[in-house]
Amino acid sequence: xxxxxxxxxxxxxxxxxxxxxxxxxxxxxxxxxxxxxxxxxxxxxxxxxxxxxxxxxxxxxxxxxxxxxxxxxxxxxxxxxxxxxxxxxxxxxxxxxxxxxxxxxxxxxxxxxxxxxxxxxxxxxxxxxxxxxxxxxxxxxxxxxxxxxxxxxxxxxxxxxxxxxxxxxxxxxxxxxxxxxxxxxxxxxxxxxxxxxxxxxxxxxxxxxxxxxxxxxxxxxxxxxxxxxxxxxxxxxxxxxxxxxxxxxxxxxxxxxxxxxxxxxxxxxxxxxxxxxxxxxxxxxxxxxxxxxxxxxxxxxxxxxxxxxxxxxxxxxxxxx
Length: 321
Known about the structure:
single chain; alpha/beta; TIM Barrel; 8-stranded parallel barrel; 8 strands; 41% helix; 13% strand
């Protein structure tokens, strides 16, 4: 069995804030309960931003409190500024995730600050954490690391410079995000190798999109470059509301299947994960859900990386076309 990976489910935050529909709070909590039953060990559940900007996240504190009461997983909240960090810590988030865009244009559109101004904001959040909640983790994600729908090309040297600055600001780890779905595998492998060379063990998660059908290929390239934490969204929900045309997070169900089939343990029960889609659909009845594994089913003879067989093995014709 290959070394395990950590799947960080971001649907309740990235997925829900990127669609027009606002999921009722009770439906969110039911979906979180279903996701907890899958064995996921990390989940990003909310974004602490003004409700007038993202009404989908108006219940962030309640959602964090509910998720944090469930044992066995790390509950993340996205925070774009010091005020958001204070609110997330007060609600009981286990870890803060901070987006810092390598694209000057996207940074101004997303958080109304330049990338360097965001580094200063991150430094203030680290100081807050150190003084008030030393047990809370902080990760930074360099967004638009692989290209920007507003600016176009993003210089790789700038991505690495920003990652080094964030590591020096005191965050626990720095990941790279394909916010706009523009990455390809060679680029992903190269940039994550540069990231690890520049900041060592602080090199963090891969947040990759499937906008142009390369999501899983890019995840595999990141894994080959040493990445062991991957963001994904159930049903492929999400994108970025401030990056036009950048739809499509990597589908959690398909990502878990890929790794488990490779012999790389995720700790996630695929059958429970697929079953959780019904709870998600009930909360968002009009929203399309994506994923090939939920449609095709598990192939005959499939076993998990730890040798377990599925509880309900499929027959040889399941999903045949």
